[in-house]
Design brief:
The chain is mainly beta. It has one domain: Lipocalin (Beta Barrel). It has two helices and eleven strands. The protein has a ten-stranded antiparallel beta barrel. Strand 5 and strand 6 form a beta hairpin. The longest helix is centred in the N-terminal third of the chain and has 10 residues. It starts with a helix and ends with a strand.
Length: about 230
């Protein structure tokens, strides 16, 4: 049961991966991506370190303003949990070097040991500022700073062990930076995971910029673009 408690408590506080698409892809463009990082926890006798969650994902430009994407999470699989996410991202507003995108999606987890599964709907929003490029916001060389939020919604009436579910909304603001050169893009993200939720009665000793609420997460990501 311990592996289930571990991952369910973490999933409440983290999306397990950084934001992938803060500006839209070109129509017909493919992207494969990977990431490493998660919420910072205290490892007794060692240090405060980010949980090394990993993700493998894919995105496709449906149009010059919309992207469909999905991801799998290998670290979850190590603990006997099949986890995937999928979503649709759309550019809702743009002016010069600024743009705002929204994303609707879901995250799904199946405990392969106990055959329990859960689905979390997700709504995200990001404002991005392209402060350096060679031609336009989709150029082969560009730098972007972005900030936004991710919202997770709990549908189940009970927690992992039958307790009544008291929290249904998990809010995760974040800020990040992306650098793209030719077909490669690298990004770093700092996230404030569930600052509206107490972290005092969970399995791990989360470290948070908000003290006993939520956790602080650090993520690194890499993308490869195929046109």
């Amino acid at each position: 049961m311990k592996h289930t408690i571990f991952l369910v408590s973490v999933i409440w506080l983290s999306s397990c991966a950084p934001t992938q698409f803060v500006v839209p892809l070109e129509k017909g463009e493919h992207v494969v991506n990977t990431s490493l990082g998660g919420p910072i926890v205290n490892i007794p006798g060692i240090a405060n370190i980010p949980i090394p969650f990993t993700s493998l994902g894919y995105g496709y430009g449906l149009t010059d303003k919309s992207v469909i994407s999905g991801a799998l999470y290998p670290t979850a699989g190590i603990y006997g949990n099949f986890q995937l996410s999928a979503g649709y991202t759309h550019e809702l507003w743009k002016k010069e070097k600024f743009n705002f995108t929204g994303r609707a999606g879901f995250d799904y987890m199946l405990d392969t040991y106990e055959k329990n599964s859960r689905l979390w709907p997700q709504l995200d929003g990001n404002v991005a500022f392209t402060y350096q490029n060679n031609q336009d916001e989709r150029a082969d060389k560009r730098k972007i700073i972005y900030l936004g939020f991710s919202n997770w919604f709990e549908l189940n009436a009970t927690k992992a062990h039958g307790e009544k579910q008291s929290k249904r909304w998990f809010f995760n603001p974040h800020i990040g930076h992306q650098m793209k050169r030719n077909q490669w893009a690298f990004h770093f993200e700092l996230a404030f995971l569930a600052p509206n939720i107490s972290n005092e009665k969970v399995v791990l000793d989360y470290k948070s910029a908000f003290g006993n609420r939520g956790a602080t997460g650090i993520y690194f990501g890499l993308q490869y673009h195929i046109k």
